Amino acid sequence: MLVYLRLFKESFSFALNALRNNKLRTFLSLLGITIGIFSIIAVLAAVDSLDRSIKEDLSGLDKNTMYLTKYSFGPTDIPRWQRDNFPQTENDDFEFIERNVPNIEAIAYVIFGATESIKYQGESVTGVELTPVSNGIYDIEDFKIVNGRFYTESESYSGAPVIVLGHSVAENLFKNLNPIGKQVRVFGRKLTVIGVLKKFGSGIFDSPDDKAYVPANFVRRFKNGGADGIAGAIIIKPKKGVDIGAFEEVLKQKYRVYRGLKAGEPDNFFVNKMSGFTDAIDGIISFLNGAGWVISAFSLLVGGFGIANIMFVSVKERTNLIGIQKSLGAKNRFILFQFLFEAVILSLLGGVIGVFLVWLISLGANYMIDDFEFILSFGNILLGFGLSTLIGLISGVIPAISASKLDPVEAIRTGM
Predict the structure, then answer these.
(1) CA angle 50, 52, 58 (to 5 degrees)
(2) How far is residue 46's CA from residue 43's CA, in Å, rounded to a whole number?
(3) What's the family (predicted)?
(4) Which residue spans within 360-402 are E strands per DSSP?
(5) How confident is the model over 111-157, as pLDDT tens digits?
(6) Dist. CA 374–CA 359, nearest whole Å
(7) How far apart are CA 381 and CA 352, in angstroms?
(8) How far apart are CA 297 and CA 295, in angstroms?
(9) Would the pTM count as exceeding 0.90?
């Protein structure tokens, strides 16, 4: 064990000497491995950070949640002209599904809203995403009320002029005032603030902090419905433990009957599942990871050739020393490990620099970008060091073997 520790110490010393004596050559050799490790760790860290942010944003939504609407949330074989002729999903559809489809834990009817301005006395907040939706959304989304309450089923059904504000909207509009009971103006109409949502925080998707919610039936009073009117969707959360495939079949069958579709006729609606959306995101994340590996592999290949090159040169420069060591009794494996350790140490140095650069960039990105947290995980750091070690081993093994097989007499003569 002491022999190998001494060997490691000598190899480290040789590596430092190589750095000091051939600064430019070593710098150019290490540049490839540094760029390679930097590229792959930066890409993996960015993709991991993106994946984590997306999953945090979707954490409050059940993967089995379904969106019943005329629109497809993903690729479809149905042509555009045919989809455009699908009837809108309306409140009557929502009431039918609510009454006739079993095993529903929560259901809501949502009208696809738009950005609106909310005014209170002399204050105004513009660009608020106003969402008309029935009260069932409270049991579907991960909402928490920090002040006041959400509107009730009775208020939702009657279309009461009430509104629930996101945390940022309430803060910007009322400053230090208590917003509960205050009347704001939206759509040119007065609505009473009955609740404020708990701060959600920013993320990849739109945050509830910048939204406001009103009963869908309130908006239906003055917005046109029907085929050419406002677009909507039914959001359905099945009960836990229900067979999702069977539930979806029952849902489609009953809705087809409601819409008068005959056997053989295609559906004129889509059932979009959140599980399909998250699967698509996982596919995109996997593709980005794969693309990052492919792109970075070229840099790692160049870095490996650079390490191999500097090791071959090091063997040639120290041929005389190798001959002397072997003439004094040094075994082949001692010479082999000496150069192999040196290659690994040089490669690890490039890896350390690459990981350090990613860490610096992550600090800068987190400082400059408020809505996204760039995370350099411990796993990615270990991966960087592991790849560096592997590249060093692969690049140094052939030069190390050639050094260990040198004849001592020929080595001394060649060195002289």
Answers:
(1) 105
(2) 5
(3) Belongs to the ABC-4 integral membrane protein family.
(4) none
(5) 887 788 899 888 888 888 888 999 999 888 877 889 999 999 999 99
(6) 10
(7) 9
(8) 5
(9) no
Angle between helix axes 319-327 and 408-415 (nearest 10 degrees) is 140
290, 12 Cβ separation under 8 angstroms: no
Closest CA to 299 of 243, 236, 351, 252: 351
Q: Final residue of a domain: which of 225, 246, 268?
A: 268
Quote the number of domains for the chain: 2
Q: Which of 248, 268, 288 is the last residue of a domain?
A: 268
Rounded Cα–Cα distance for residues 272 and 68 (Å): 6
What are residue 124's DSSP bridge partners?
119
Both tokens assigned to 286:
């996997």
Cβ neighbours, 10 Å, residue 360? 11
How many Å from the N-terminal Cα to the C-terminal Cα in the chain? 34
| Mean pLDDT, the chain, integer | 80
DSSP conformation letters of 2-70: HHHHHHHHHHHHHHHHHHHHTHHHHHHHHHHHHHHHHHHHHHHHHHHHHHHHHHHHHTTS-TT-EEEES
| Segment 247-284, tens digit of pLDDT | 989 999 999 999 888 888 888 888 888 766 666 677 77
Give the C-alpha separation, 278 to 267, whole Å.
24
How far apart (Å, rounded) are the C-alpha atoms in residues 87 and 91? 12
**Domain range enclosing 253:** 87-268
CA 138 to chain centre: 26
Rounded to the nearest 10 degrees, how much is the dihedral formed by the CA atoms of 216, 217, 219, 223?
120
Strands 232-238 and 189-197, by their bridges, are unpaired
CA-CA distance, 120 to 302, in Å (whole number)?
A: 63
**Tokens in use for 1?**
């064990």
Six-digit token pair at 212?
Answer: 């406001």
Q: Are 112 and 231 in contact (CB under 8 A)?
A: yes
**299 belongs to a structural domain:** yes
